[in-house]
């Protein structure tokens, strides 16, 4: 953990007046703001733990503790987000995302001319355009609600012929999913999805047990389309600032070298 987290907490602790935090200031203070002992009391942790956190020692605050810190330090929404980002934790208060933000992200795919789709945390497709439906035969052209990319890749016979070099791409997809859901690996929905896929696909079960982790990156994507033959795209993945649980994936046509 970088000491940026400790410095951020210390700076905001020193800026907060005791009376604004509901702490009675007794006696003369040598340093401004809250004392570590006072912040610790407000957060229901030990003063030693606050000291270690500010010093950058290897302590790992839980999301609940970070939430209490944010409340005690009276952080703004942007400051709270930064606190959780520095700690590498997901803010539990950010889970119920704004519907308006989600709607804007989902509507955006209709304005894109190349194949594009939006995935949620379980890699269910929540929206896609006509170009994506035309490309992904057997997945986005079937009229299903929230069809899952992993289920299509590992359970559909169509995927094995549509996706070029299926064994490599499927193994990489499992590794990308593990990296993408790392912070939510114990989420019941993700656990259920992984269990279902492992039970239905020996390939997925083997790849998942390898514990490979790979960042979801762009790059060349090749397909063998039943009507249009061999197609090549450059994949680009975007994470909307207003909905970090969603991914907008675009496939830009390219000419193979």
UniProtKB/TrEMBL annotation:
InterPro entries: Cro/C1-type_HTH (IPR001387), Lambda_DNA-bd_dom_sf (IPR010982), MLTR_LBD (IPR041413). It holds the Pfam family HTH_31. PROSITE patterns: HTH_CROC1 (PS50943). Residues 33-80 form the HTH cro/C1-type domain. Gene3D superfamilies: 3.30.450.180, lambda repressor-like DNA-binding domains. SUPFAM superfamilies: lambda repressor-like DNA-binding domains. This is Helix-turn-helix transcriptional regulator. It comes from Crenobacter oryzisoli.
